[in-house]
Design brief:
With 410 residues, the protein is α/β, with parallel strands linked by helices. It is built from ten helices and 20 strands. Helix content is 19%, strand content 26%. The two termini are 14 Å apart.
Length: 410
Amino acid sequence: MANSPDMLWTLLALGKLGATAVPVNLAAKGELLPYFLTQSDSKYLVVDGEVSDRLLPLEETLGQLQGVVVRGEGVSRTVRGRATVPFGELLAAPETLPPEEVRCFEPHYILYTSGTTGPSKGVIACHAQGFYVYGATQFAALGAMTNIIWKQPPRPDDADNPVRLCFSIPAPGEFIEAFERRFSLKVVTWFSMTENYPITLYAPGDPPDKLASAGRPRGEAEVLVVDEHDVELPPGRIGELVFRPRDPWSVMLGYYKMPEATLATNRNLWFHTGDRAYFDEEGWLWFVDRMKDSIRRRGENISAYELEVILAKHEAIQAVAAIPVPAEMGEDEVMVYIVARPGHRLTPEDVIAFCQPRMPYFMVPRYVEFLDELPKTPTEKVEKYKLRARAVAELDRVWDRERAGLQVSR
């Protein structure tokens, strides 16, 4: 469902019933949509009618679905053989609740990660971890969102808004003071993940020279930077960021049906973020980069692995590597290096045409480059750091979807 009061009511109602909600990105289609629905063992689907046609090719793969609730006008044949309920009927239903008590440590929803080192993992969040906001006086602007807001034409009423705090991740250091004055608010930043809560925070009144950091621990968690053996590193040394909460039920219960990944993430009794960072001498945390194979474009996390799996199904593609390259607005743009199969011809336009119906719009590559072979280690792993260096050095001559005028529809 798109963002709407109905979507929020659905999440709250499922929590009140003791059911587990599985929010799915509205842009999901192709192979990712059935993966989310089947991996989560979802039994019922609430869907906006305008996107219900995406279920048409999935009827045979979604055998576990028992019923579908359609909001608005939908494609009825997408739910052949299953109970179909108009969303409006739910609003007229009795308010009787099931007799079971819903407890704070029980699952409330499953949120899927970006799938950085393999298929997306379903994060099981309990009721104590989730929260909702009404009459909002604060909002989160991830990555490029702050730049996009800032670049809107100034208006006389920019400061006429109820917002007190903007959680900008990362904070826009180059225009932060002007941003705060223009919109009459304060900018703060933090470090958090789908699996947990903000474990560090930069708050109003903190030193201005620390604004580009990820803040500092505020007592809700123990936070360390460690080496490859989980030994704590001194200030200034870059390592993996790990933490453990002080309050129970404040982080995920685990990854759904992925016990090995759950155990690996929580090894040695510390939650391993998979991100590289360091503490300075004053105890402020500075994010460096991701250890995971992830791309972040305009606030969306993109799994390079999942993008590569989809592209590898093209009959003319022998090998593919997806990497992040710097974006003009901050964060990343998506670039793919492709090795064509012998005897096949492939153009960048062919690649985009293949991607469009099979993946969310934000995942479709902007840059496409063809190589005779990908650089690999002796164990046959692609040396992506070499590809990133090559891309940065040659980006102005690489085929660019935006420069070519190709539009990607949502």
